[in-house]
Amino acid sequence: MDDISVVDYHTAGEPFRIVTSVELPGASVADRRVAAQSSEAIDAVRRLLVNEPRGHADMYGGFVVPGDDDGADFGVVFWHKDGYSTACGHGTIALATWAVETGLVPPGDVTIDVPSGRVTARVDSSGSVAFRNVPSYVLSRGVQVPTSRGSVLADISYGGAFYASVPASSVGLSVTPECYADLIAIGREIKWALDAVAVHPTDPRLSGLYGTILYDDLGPAHQRNLAVFADGEADRSPCGSGTSARLALLHDEGRLSTGEVLRHDSIVGTTFLGRVVSETPAGVITEVTGTAYRTGTATFSLDPRDPLGTGFTLR
User: Fold this and answer.
1) Active-site residue among 48, 72, 88, 96?
2) How far apart are CA 161 and CA 239, in angstroms?
């Protein structure tokens, strides 16, 4: 395997590793995600960059690829320790920041094609990024889930990926570092129990429950959450696509009006601001605002003599 150079960012504490040197076949970003899933050679690069000793169990990143057409500045195939996601809000914020800081795109609007569709991000002069997501909507409410902490009710919504939202208090927890391990454990249980329930109405490639959002209500328009996604990854940020999914639920409940701002905090105390900007037949259009910062650059190698190969993951 050739050496792989990366640029690392964090968005509200969540890492995002940017790779521009990997080519993926396909006519669209959604097709390229499928190609990555089915290619041992491409997936070996993902494993190299996400696994220990070069990454860790909560690493995240993406392959920058061409957009679906000339309307996009570029596309991205997102990846994590267990595979390839359909959406990633914190990654979108990091990529928009990177694109402007490197001069790839002039300051202002950045248009990015992701597996779930086309998103746009506006980078202002302070570095703050507001991205508008694909339409978000409620799939189902009050789905009963048996867990090791008793039966709970979950609401499932879509923000480019499907999430099950569950109040942390309903499983005897709060979204605090002290409850971190227990939150991950119950988040995994709920995710796998409801995975088959989350079916996309038009594109089966987008089906499956991506994660569980465990949340605390802190005020009329203020929540704190931990998104436990893939197979037990814990988002250090407030989760961008998860924020969109929460906005769809809150708007549907009448708890958050169009234009009203939700303060969405993470388990590490960082914040995204989210709002519903409009309603469409396909769902609500949401805008999520946050910031990303470059943390470093690196070139990773795989010594053919290394018995650990592309690495390992400990959870």
Assistant:
1) 88
2) 11
* Amino acid found at 12: A
Residue 297, sorted as left (phi over 0), alpha (psi -120 to 50) or beta, turns out to be beta
Sole residue written with tokens 């594109």: 203
Q: Is 88 an active-site residue?
A: yes
Q: Where are the alpha helices (DSSP H) in the chain?
A: 29-38, 40-50, 89-101, 180-194, 240-253
Q: Where are the beta strands (DSSP E) in 12-87?
A: 14-19, 60-65, 74-80
Residue 298's DSSP bridge partners are 6
Confirm if 46 and 305 have CB atoms less than 8 A apart.
no
Q: Which residues contact 236 (CB under 8 A, 6 or more apart)?
A: 10, 12, 13, 14, 15, 58, 266, 267, 268, 270
Give per-10-residue mean pLDDT for the chain (315 aa): 96 98 96 97 98 97 98 98 97 98 95 98 95 98 96 98 98 98 98 96 96 97 98 97 98 97 98 98 98 98 97 91
Residue 200 token pair: 């996309």
3-state secondary structure 163-196: EEEEEHHHHCCCCCHHHHHHHHHHHHHHHHHHHH
Neighbours of 181 (CB within 10 A): 9
Measured in whole angstroms, the distance separating CA 222 from the mean position of its chain's CA atoms is 20
Structure tokens at 294: 């470059």
DSSP state of 92: H
Residues 6+ apart with CB under 8 A from 74: 64, 65, 66, 67, 95, 99, 104, 112, 113
Distance CA 10, CA 12 (A): 6
What type of residue sits at position 158? Y
Pairing relation of β-strands 233-234 and 261-265? unpaired
